[in-house]
Amino acid sequence: MNIKRYFGKNSREALSMVKQELGANAVILSNRAVEGGNEILAFREEDMATLVARDKPKPVAAKPQPQTAVGEETLVSMLSRNQRILKTAEPLNHQALQQQRAQAASKKTTPQAQPKAVAAQAAKPMVKNTAKPVREQIEQDQLSQREMAQMMQELRSMRGAIESQLTEITWANIQQRDPIKSNVLSKMISAGFSAGLSRQIAEKVPAGHSEAEANKWLHNVISSNIHTITDEQQILDQGGIYALVGPTGVGKTTTTAKLAARFVMKHGAGKLALITTDSYRIGGHEQLRIYGKILGVMVHAVKDEADLRIALNELKGKHTILIDTVGVSQRDRMVAEQIAMLSKTGLPIKKILCMNATSSGETLADVMDVYKRCGLNGCILTKLDEAASIGSALDIIMRERLRLYYVANGQRVPEDIHIANNTFLAHHAFKMARKKAEQFQFRDAEMPFLMANVASSNMTGGRA
């Protein structure tokens, strides 16, 4: 193949030179602008045909098999032939001979068996590789999963709708058939207890009770399920290390000061120590320092786990140590850091959760789910004087079987803190319900719809 180079002032001039010399069917390899003009590389069409013909694969001739002369016999072949001839004959196996004859006879009777098998094998269709591309297969799997998830969601919705309707019908029948249970349910809902707990207790009202007997039975059930302490010997008199934990704004610092004041009045300031970890809030530890100065108790401020361990080692001779922790949201990651700081000291620190009585049941349940992981030893119910109903707080305490130590009902130190009394709390919860405004009261006709909503929320994963 003869490739030629043509140079012109422009592309048109170089192309005309190619046509004049190589013809109109010339093959152009490149056409590029160079310094001073344009350059074209080309060759004849006949050279391309020659090149294609040369690159075609030639058939490979079969190699002739080596043939040995019939008349010639090598020394090795002679020896092997003689060895076969001289081999000792083995005795004849008559049983094997009969089997071979029977097989030969069967083959003669069915001479078409083998051709049929061969034909059947040949008749089988060739299986083609129908595997789809990996990406398409993944997309189809994802689509199937989405369709299955949507179908399951629709089934759950249908089930929830059916259960809610059945619950509504059931409670409508209960109101007509057993108005005492309906009355108990209405009282608990109005007091702030959750619909789930109210339904469980209402279903267990003894048959044949009058309304007065059912109300008395209800008060006894609620009070018996609130675990309290009989006296302060189980907490301050016993001594130890107590850490007050909880979200921001529940009154941990004020409650710590109230407990410190009660202890000092009984045992003196020399047996008490106060520690605060509230280094985030501006002036957070100063509030406790003021209380400590009034009580004559030294307040130690710590920032991390190392400071807390050093402070506890220095105060190990104290009868009681109260720790006021920093208040953070229950959804803040600092809660885990705070719990880790208290748990890694190597000392038995009892954790007491401060619960705000004014919070809703959903909020208190969220707080409890986070703080119970650290192993709570008890709780204190704060801001009792600000709450319009305390049923939600009592509901959570009963569900978690948490021991209630104190209730706080004001800002005065130390007057506004009292040992929890389960009978008083049960009576107070229903007494506050009677004072509710009319727009927050549930009517009897609305109870079936409320219980139907509870059944629907349970199906969708809601909290009863």
UniProtKB/TrEMBL annotation:
Keywords of this entry = Bacterial flagellum biogenesis, Bacterial flagellum protein export, Cell membrane, Cell projection, Cilium, Flagellum, GTP-binding, Membrane, Nucleotide-binding, Protein transport, Transport
What membrane topology does the annotation report for this chain?
Peripheral membrane protein
Please name the InterPro entries in this protein's record: AAA+_ATPase, FlhF, FlhF__GTPase_dom, P-loop_NTPase, SRP54_GTPase_dom
Please provide an example of a Pfam family that matches this protein in its UniProt record. Answer: SRP54
Q: Which residues form the AAA+ ATPase domain?
A: 238-404
* NCBIfam families with a match to the protein in the record: FlhF
Role: Necessary for flagellar biosynthesis. May be involved in translocation of the flagellum.
Protein name per the record: Flagellar biosynthesis protein FlhF
- Per the UniProt record, the source organism is Methylobacillus methanolivorans
